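Pilot study result, target chain (255 residues):
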Amino acid sequence: MASDNSWRKIFKDYKIHKHNFSNSPLVITNKQIKKSCQNFTRTTEKEVRILCKQDSREDRPEIFQENNLFILPIKNGFYAIIEGEGYIDIPEIKTETVVYQSKLSFSLDTSKVGDSEMQHLDYAYASSLIRSFMQDDTLVLTIRGRKYTPEFSFRAGKYKHLIETKSVQTEVDAGYEGESKVLLVEAKNCSTANVIIRQIYYPFRQWQRYTNKPVELIFFEKREENYCIWRFVFDTITDYNSIRLVDSVRYKISD
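Predicted structure:
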C-alpha cells in the first residue's frame, strides 16, 4: 500500500509509537502530516486527504493494522488516532431474496444508464422500495450532499473520556424525512465487507441536532440484480461503538 511508507515516517517523526494509546487518542494535524511527507513524490504518499481516507479495515496502513488503530477527523485540519474497533461488518444476507413489485406504473429507461450508487438508490426510492422497507409511505427526499457537522462529543474505541468534534465534513448519499422519522442512507455500488462507522455515525449525530424526530439509518448496496438493505441503530447516542445491526433484506425489483 502506497501509504505504508508515509505513515511509518509520520510515526517515526513524531514518536507516535511511544504514545500510550491505551489511555488516550493521539491528535495529529494536517500540517504535521504534510511536513512529514513533503519529500514523497507520489500524490498517494503525501496528500493528507488520501492518507487519512481509511474507509475499510483493509484500507488502513500496516502500522495501523499492527497496532489496532483507526483514524477519525475531529475538526478542520485535526485528526484523532484511536485504538480499538473503528469499523462495522456488512454481513452477507443469507435469507431468501424478496421479489418486490415496483409501485411505478411505467418503466424508467434513464435509470438503466450507468452504474452509480446514486442511480441505484434513486431507482429504489422511485419504485417505493425504500418506503416499503421502512414501512413509511410519507418519506420524501430532503437531504443530499456534503455539509459540516455541528459540535458534538462521543466515546470511541476503548476510551471512557469524550472526544470533541466540530465542523467535520460529512456526505449523505440520501436523506428522507417522513411524518414521524428521518432516514439517512449510506450507499455503495460494490460488495462491501466492512465500513468505517464514522460514515454512519457522524451524519447521525449531525442531523439529530436539527430534528426532534428519530433519525434512522440504513446501508444500501446494489449487488448484481439485487438491492440489499441493512438497518443499523446506535444503542447509546454518545457511543461510537454502540452500533448494532437490526435487520437486513435482499430484494429483487420487478417492473
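One observation from the pilot: DSSP finds eight helices and 14 strands in the chain. A full batch analysis is planned for the follow-on phase.
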